[in-house]
Write a structure and sequence with these properties.
It catalyses: a (3S)-3-hydroxyacyl-CoA + NAD(+) = a 3-oxoacyl-CoA + NADH + H(+). In the central section; belongs to the 3-hydroxyacyl-CoA dehydrogenase family. With 735 residues, the protein is α/β, with parallel strands linked by helices. Strands 11-10-9-12-13-14-15-16 form an 8-stranded mixed beta sheet, with helices on both faces. The chain folds into 3 domains: 6-294, 2-enoyl-CoA Hydratase, Chain A, domain 1, CATH 3.90.226.10; 329-507, NAD(P)-binding Rossmann-like Domain (Rossmann fold), CATH 3.40.50.720; 514-729, N-(1-d-carboxylethyl)-l-norvaline Dehydrogenase, domain 2 (Orthogonal Bundle), CATH 1.10.1040. The protein is built from 31 helices and 18 strands. Helix 2 packs antiparallel against helix 3 (88-99) and helix 15 (360-379) packs antiparallel against helix 16 (385-393). Helix content is 51%, strand content 11%.
Length: 735
């Protein structure tokens, strides 16, 4: 039997081993060719009486990350083409049949009459875990790299190859829905307790244990196909079953604000499927899956959070011709919260770190931050004491700049003052190797100005982290006017090494992300001063798809910082550059009320020592007026939050700050949480069309002022019927 993606062997005991090992990929993914191979394996095992059963495992470090979602993108294009040629009905029939091929294949494996077992190592996610769930037995390696899960909701889909039906039959319905809603990756011990795998064992033993299960008389029948099978939470229409669905619907509404049709489809598919035999349940699941696969939310999220993310993580913006850099040691100057966090993520990636501050005590305090973070991981069972010791051994805390002598990259994270940074740059360059790269982690100061203090400005680059560094995936790599290709390449190689996603932006005040976030905060401030009830501001922002409301977010980043930025902008660019209403609010909060945010326990919210935060009652007095919430247009409030950010993204493109729509979209979602279901700031505009977006901007500008006026680029795109992605593709072809 010839297989392109598997090795297939049968041992002396008659147990087959199918080892998934795609020759041209670093990780196994499900493709049409893989599906063909799996079909041949099922036929071979089922048709050969000498084969007692089959173990499916991986020949790589990980089992598989799931399906190649570009395959699903291609299915959408085929649908559109067929609809033009043969009509909507024929296209939809084709689309449905094609989209459920994997589900039918897995069901064929499950019912072929021979036992199949999955031996899982590393990550096993999405369609790959659905394959494992279709097997009759699952053994997972117990090492810390192993994860299983169904994360499809994170790209606007849901498990459409039987995953929703099988999970809902393996564990209580409420737990299954939570798993499907969240799409989290699950560790082996938890997976076993959830009945997702039957065994966890050392990696070297997983194949042997899977074979032993087959030889020990493993049944070639899923529990739900056995006579007398009962659902874990009883029938849907039973007292126990009906306790689940009202709560599940409420949780769905609370968590999604009805913005994610895939999660709603999960509710439908599980609710209906649990009332049907498995084959009919799978058909119902496939119908919902085909419908969701054609949704604009899925198309936008797949493009941004799968395709574009992968391309950026693989170095789409890396200069061609610059050799790959191996970063062995990184210097971090400034052991405050940001610098200490940068040191942690760097050391956590296995890179040596020199952490410098003004004296030994300050440097040690910064290193202690890594000790705390690792201790938290140990307490959660995600790391061992030896891991903490090894990480701390990679961090050298010192006040001595001479320790930077053998660093490949040095990053400053000191106070946001040009004079302080200039002094640090001079000290660092005096100690650094001539070929080392210098990076500045600044969130407000233009990189070109800072590079003017450097002896080697072509080796100077901005590396802007987001707080908290250990959790935030985005890093903005900022090009000064003098930044050379090597500096950019090293910065991108470093970001990849610490397992974060980079976007490359050109220099400007606020760069890209902070400009958009600043607009979001400002809109919340202006709504407050208009008299929109504070609770309504926060709730409507979440209804629009933002992770937190603007008032809560401002408390987290500090209200006095927002005031400082407003004052600095006014000093450099003049009175017209700031909104006087926003400035008035911030001055009142900081200078008159002493409310700085979470850091001093009082901001837009009060933060008691015990109990939950609550909105400060005094906000109504600052606003001076209160509008009737029932008279407000909720849809317009939602639009204001999203449009102000997307419009700033469009301005960033026009000004040449962002040059690639992929970076604008990816950066907006993972950097500041812009409504993921839209696909990002520019996809939000493309999704409704430039003409409709310009009209919406003009409507908002007429009601709320010139900050909503569409820029010249958008007006030009509206006149020509262009999209941001279409313009980018055209520019690429022209080049």
């Amino acid at each position: 039997m010839e297989l392109a993606n598997f090795r297939f062997d049968v041992d002396a005991d008659g147990v087959a081993l199918a080892t998934w090992d795609m020759a041209d990929r670093s990780m196994n993914v499900i493709t049409p060719q893989v599906m063909e191979d799996l079909g041949r394996i099922v036929d071979e095992v089922a048709g050969d009486a000498a084969i007692k059963g089959c173990v499916i495992t991986s020949g790589k470090e990980s089992f598989s990350g799931g399906a190649d979602l570009t395959m699903l993108q291609g299915l959408g294009l085929a649908y559109a083409q067929l609809a033009k040629q043969q009509g909507e009905e024929a296209a939809m029939r084709f689309f449905f049949d094609e989209s459920r091929k994997l589900s039918l294949l897995y069901r064929r494996l499950e019912t072929c009459g021979k036992p199949f077992a999955a031996a899982i190592n590393g990550v096993c996610l999405g369609g790959a875990f659905e394959l494992a769930l279709a097997c009759h037995y699952r053994v997972a390696s117990d090492d810390k790299a192993t994860r299983v899960g169904l994360p499809e909701v994170k790209v606007g889909l849901f498990p459409g190859a039987g995953g929703a039906q099988r999970v809902a039959r393996l564990m209580p319905t409420g737990d299954a829905l939570q798993m499907l809603f969240k799409g989290e990756q699950i560790r082996p011990a938890a997976a076993k307790s959830m009945n997702l795998v039957q065994e966890a064992a050392p990696r070297a033993e997983i194949v042997a244990k899977a074979k032993a299960w087959i030889l020990g008389g493993g049944k070639a029948q899923a529990p739900w196909d056995a006579e007398g099978y009962r659902l874990p939470s009883n029938k849907v229409y039973s007292p126990q079953g009906m306790m689940i669905w009202p709560a599940a619907n409420a949780i769905y509404r609370r968590e999604t604000q009805d913005n994610y049709p895939a999660i709603k489809a999960v509710l439908h598919a599980v609710y209906e499927g649990l009332q049907l035999p498995m084959d009919l349940a799978l058909k119902v699941e496939s119908r919902y899956f085909a419908n969701i696969l054609r949704s604009p939310q899925a198309a936008a999220m797949i493009r941004t959070l799968f395709v574009s993310m992968q391309e950026l993580n693989k170095g789409a913006r890396r200069p061609a011709g610059v050799p790959a850099s191996v970063i062995r040691k990184v210097g971090v100057i400034g052991a405050g919260f940001m610098g200490a966090s940068v040191a942690y993520v760097t050391a956590n990636a296995g890179i040596e770190v020199v952490l410098i501050d003004r004296d030994q005590e300050a440097a040690d305090k910064g290193k202690a931050h890594s000790h705390k973070l690792m201790t938290d991981q140990i307490m959660k069972g995600r790391a061992k004491t030896a891991d903490r010791d090894a990480l701390l051994a990679r961090i050298t805390a010192t006040p001595d700049y001479a320790a930077l002598a053998d660093c490949d990259l040095v990053i400053e994270a000191v106070f946001e003052d040009p004079r302080v940074k200039a002094e640090v740059i001079a000290k660092a360059e005096a100690a650094m190797r001539p070929d080392a790269i210098f990076g500045s982690n600044t969130s407000t100061l233009p990189i070109t100005g800072l590079a003017g203090h450097a002896q080697r400005p072509n080796q100077f680059v901005g590396i802007h982290f987001f707080s908290p560094v250990e959790k935030m995936l985005l890093v903005e790599v900022i090009l000064a006017k003098q930044t050379g290709d090597k500096a950019l390449a090293v910065a991108l190689d470093y970001v990849r090494a610490i397992r974060k996603t980079p976007i490359v932006v050109n220099d400007a005040r606020g760069f890209y992300a902070n400009r958009c976030v600043g607009n979001y905060l400002r809109e919340g401030h202006l709504m407050l001063m208009e008299g929109v009830p504070p609770a309504m501001i926060e709730n409507v922002a979440r209804m629009a798809g933002m992770p937190v409301g603007p008032l809560s977010l401002n408390d987290e980043v500090a209200i006095d910082l927002a005031l400082k930025i407003v004052k600095a902008t006014k000093a450099q660019l003049g009175d017209a550059a700031v909104d006087p209403v926003q400035e008035k609010l911030l001055v009142e909060m900081v200078e008159k009320q002493g409310r700085l945010g979470r850091k001093n326990g009082k901001g837009f919210y009060d933060y008691p020592e015990k109990g939950q935060k609550s909105l400060w009652p005094g906000l109504k007095d600052i606003a001076g007026q209160r509008l009737d919430p029932d008279a407000l247009d909720v849809e317009e409030l939602k639009q204001r939050f999203l449009v102000t950010q997307a419009l700033e993204a469009a301005r960033s493109v026009e000004e040449g700050i962002v040059t690639d729509p992929r970076e604008a979209d990816v950066g907006s979602i993972i950097g500041f949480g812009f409504a993921p279901y839209t696909g990002g700031t520019l996809s939000y505009i493309d999704g409704m069309g430039a003409k409709a977006f310009v009209a919406l901007c003009e409507k908002l500008a007429a009601r709320h002022g010139p900050r909503f006026e569409p820029n010249a680029l958008l007006r030009d795109m509206a006149a020509k019927g262009e999209t941001f992605y279409g313009r980018a593709a055209g520019a690429k072809r022209a080049a």
